[in-house]
Fold these 2 entries.
Entry 1:
Amino acid sequence: MSDRRYVIPQPPQAALAIAGSSELFPVRRIWCVGRNYEEHIKEMGHDVRDPPFFFSKPADAIVPDGGTSPYPSLTKDMHHEVELVVALKSGGRNIPVAKALDCVWGYGVGIDLTRRDLQIASRDMKRPWEVGKAFDASAPCGPLQPASKTGHPKKGRIALKCNGKVRQDGDLTQMIWNVPEIINKLSEMVALEAGDIILTGTPSGVAATVAGDKLECEVEGVGSLTVTIGQPAK
Ligand code: MN
């Protein structure tokens, strides 16, 4: 139902598919964790003792499984970062670690596409990261599986292949901050709500991806995601 008070048509609700179902998970916000796997922190040249931090992407940056992310403007170095996606059915402020998993509806596989050259330039100029992280079609996400089916995964392979060749190959056990700790920390920064999703950081092996690449991702026991990098949007 459209609300006639809106002076322009209401934008569509961003949503994620549910595996094996025609149902949808409505997405409110996309949060991302920076630097949560030790080997990736080292490959980016940072100290692993630094605490993690959070940034966000717009909800409409989602690209569904089987979709295409057009190669974005302004960059010459877009990277893939495969990540475990956590989808929240409830939220709150200052959620205790012991209660955090009660907020989780389910899990999926996503890619935090990154304009690495612009991210690093903005970092070096002490500017915000949006230009590097929060661009159109920067958040491909596969279908969610309910936690009632998968349980809460604590281990399992997390991997990304580019054109059939393995580029990222890690394990959820390598996460420095686990899912309950991430929810706890993020809920100290903002009030979390149902519909928020969290991309939980990437293992090592991030690399450039170009138009025509086929990216195939999996998180063991959670699901998979295939996305194609397309020609630049006109
Ligand atoms: Mn990331």
Entry 2:
Amino acid sequence: MLTDESPLSTVYEPTGQDPVVYLKRYYGYDRFRPMQEAIIRSIVSGRDTVVLMPTGGGKSVCFQIPALMMPGLCVVVSPLIALMKDQVEALHLNGIAAAYINSSQGVKEMRDVEANCVSGKIKLLYVSPEKLLSESFYVFLNRMKISMFAIDEAHCISSWGHDFRPEYTQLNTLRKWFPNVPIIALTATADRLTRQDISDRLDMRDPAVFIASFNRTNLSLQVLPGTNRIGQITKLISLKPNTSGIIYCLSRKSCETLATKLMEKGYSAAFYHAGMESSERARIQEAFLRDDVKIMCATIAFGMGIDKSNVRWVMHYNMPKNIEGYYQEIGRAGRDGLPSQTVLFYSFADVATYTQMLTENKPANLELQLAKLERMKQYAEANTCRRQILLSYFSEQLPEPCGNCDVCRSPRITFDATTVAQKALSAIIRLGERVPMNVLIDVLRGSRNYSIVSQGFDKIKTYGAGADLKFEEWRSYLHQLINIGVIEVAYENHYALRKGLLADDVLFNGKTISLVRPDDVPKPVVEKATRTRTESNRDELFERLRTLRKRIADAQNVPPYVVFTDSTLEDMARQRPTTPDAFRNVSGVGERKLEMFGTAFLTEIADYVGVQVGESQRQVRSEAPSRPREAAKPKGSTQQMTLELYQQGMTIQQIAQARELGPSSIANHLIQLSQGGYDVELESLITPAERREIEAAIAIVGIEENRTKPVFDHLEGRYDYGKINITIALMKH
Ligand code: ADP
Ligand code: ZN
């Protein structure tokens, strides 16, 4: 794995006390997001700190940077053992010395980690709450200086919350054991009860509480009618090829059916629910994290703690039970801050199902749950800015409509529908409040359906009174009338429609009703199809970088978004750096990643924009203070590592394997080293026959604007870019 590249081999150098220096060096970002710096300063000053920030808000750096700034070990409590490895690997790729201890490890591995903590080599240690509170662990922690405790997913401590974990309630022991060590608690839960519960239960002393805005402006909000959902879904995802997304379904069965249908249509999809073997669940989750499966059809069992940052869209096949759940689920899209799409399919049938379930099961907080369901329904039916509704639910004001929800994009036009409502009510009454919606519509439209005629429904006075409206129009209006309380659904009586609370007012007291025409009810938006040339070039380069990222991630055995986020790749495709210094300017490129992946990405970009690797390297060298031959060995640099293996007599293939890099990257290292005056014999890296064939191909297709792709294509992929670049380097020589 990351052995020789593990940050343990780098000496940990404090960078002074300016947090932004750490942000740039380890994470490659230039600026803090709102509140991050204040949070960091609070914890560094030794104060207990509570952080409420939405998913994707950037909580990690809030405790990781203090961990780097403060002397001693930061202990991170995290409930999800399965994710610790990923979290720690992501830190390693940022050049931060971190480790985890949990039950999945052998004794030897655990001892090694402990020794590294005691000797001060590790800055962050991830543990589960059970492990942390064991007596042996207390003894171990007492052998060293602890800088702080970070409690991740801190809402798990509250029995008010939606994800209560009994182990978490013991965490107040930390205060007793380590009265002087500051505690930072972080969560993406916004509700007020949980908030207070967290600081109480951790015995915090006068904590600084930071509540970030829960407005995730990069998430678009859209509610679509829950009809022909498969058709709508395939249309939506066909507009977003190659992107990762989640579709939440209510039942296990519908996860499976939906995934199967999508697979039949050729999409890369899978399903995930609590009824599956845990090993199978882990396998599917991993495939999704690694971009091997693009579309996940899942129940809400999926997603907790998953920090995959390149989920580009989230859809709800069914309406969620409450706004908390909904907000958390859509929050899994766009953690990297790039625009991401969310779609909720709304059908009144879902409300009916939940209501029936709740009234049958009679939970203790039935009233509360029904009220929450009602708020969710109001959101789904809203004719005003949806984001304003969401944020007001979380006690936050958004003064202006957001402009990034379906209502803002196509404002609704209402009309006076009082007679429509009266016709419907009159038919309902004459039918004895006994028939469901479809039958009512048939009666209103004067259908000659056998079941209508055989029951004598064609004899009632309102039969055919609504023949001027289409079936779909009636359905839309009846739904709206149900939603505003003019009509009610008798769930206990086969979903028969009956008079609602407002019915008499409409019939007898002159109450007017306005409804929205079905044309104004949102349909899937077709994204703009025209793209400028620059945009499509950028997309093309982005795709190449994405492919390269996947290759590197597989070689490193980490998820692609851990190598670089989508937003970093986008910035790269925009800036097109061809020198390491320019590469450093890309948002999300820290020192460690520059060192590890710089060459590979620079080569890809250089190849795309038609700059020869040699040229870009000469540029780099002219900026270097001294000539390479005299220069001290670039310690730890990726070229240096390649050189050392080359000097041991290894072939490109062997070096590539040993370093878990692509052969072309190794070849490019060797070309750069040779051009930099190091003793690398390019001739020996390629056989005369190979060279002849590549030269022949170059003779035919030429090197168009210094691009080598045509040569590569002409050779039908028989030779990698490494060999092609070596041949070109030799030709120039
Ligand atoms: P959370 O834990 O709050 O859900 P993360 O800590 O995973 O969020 O951060 C979400 C994303 O935002 C990550 O890709 C992270 O690298 C990025 N990020 C964090 N802070 C900044 C910043 N100051 N500038 C740019 N990106 C940032
Ligand atoms: Zn809006």
